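Exercise 3.2. Students should predict the tertiary structure of the chain below and write it as structure tokens, then compare their answer with the key that follows.

Predict this chain's 3D structure.
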Amino acid sequence: MSPSVDPPALSSAAPAAGGLSRRWLYLILATALLFVLMPFLFWQSTWFGRPLTDAQIEKSLADREHPRKIQHALSQIADRILSGNPSLQASVRRWYPQVVALSASSVDELRLTAAWVMGQDNTVPEFHQALLRSVVDPHPMVRRNAALSLVRYRDATGRPVILGMLDPYVVHAPHAGTLAQRLKLGDVVNPGTLLARIQDGEQKIEVRSQVPGTLERWVAPDRANLSAGEAVVELAPSPEMVWEALRALYLVGQPEDLPAIERYALLTAPGVTAVTRGSATGMRDSIRQQAELAARAIRFRFGIQP
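Answer key:
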């Protein structure tokens, strides 16, 4: 006789196995959902193109605990100014005093964003006056945004800053100590990129870039003992910064700026940075063409023969 099987035991085991399978299925689905949801939430929280209502802009501008929300609101104000829609343009004028106030914020990112926004409406005297203060800001990106925005007012006050955008940017040691290089030549950097660390006893001080560019030359060798303020590394300007500077010099450039501009018209001439020579073909062509246009405009304005 074959051994008997207890039917209740068999029937109770089947649901248990089925329940376990369902739990694993739910766990897998939940994990997959997180893989989709988390990048979306991160993108939504960092992308400034998401439209905001008037109430959301008002709330974000008042949120001093979350600077990125303020940046988002500022970006939306700029988008409305640039929309070409008179109704949308008029809707943001009530926030102009807050934009001016943010140009003096203690947060670097808010000052540089405000400087950019104030260049989008060149009919506002209060923006013009605030930009004249921002063009001497301690942070280089605030100065650059302010200088470019002033060009919209036909104001060449920031011309020295714009010319500096064509040259390598030297990063200096914020503290004395022993240098530990982190990046290699040719690495592309953005504002906030960690370039190196400086060791002073038990203390480690980070050296971060404040501007975009490409690491062109270590001025100080690895493990060098540095003094505070000593040059550490040289960054070639990013192609985008060069292009923006050349566009501005088309309008406010002077005859003495021609040698700096014409380096970029030639591209292969000595003095043109490695990042421009090595950039994508389309960007190289845009830079060369913009340099030629800027040089031609300056020569025309001042009656200089080619």
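Discussion points: The chain is about 55% helix and 15% strand. The two ends are 112 Å apart (CA to CA).
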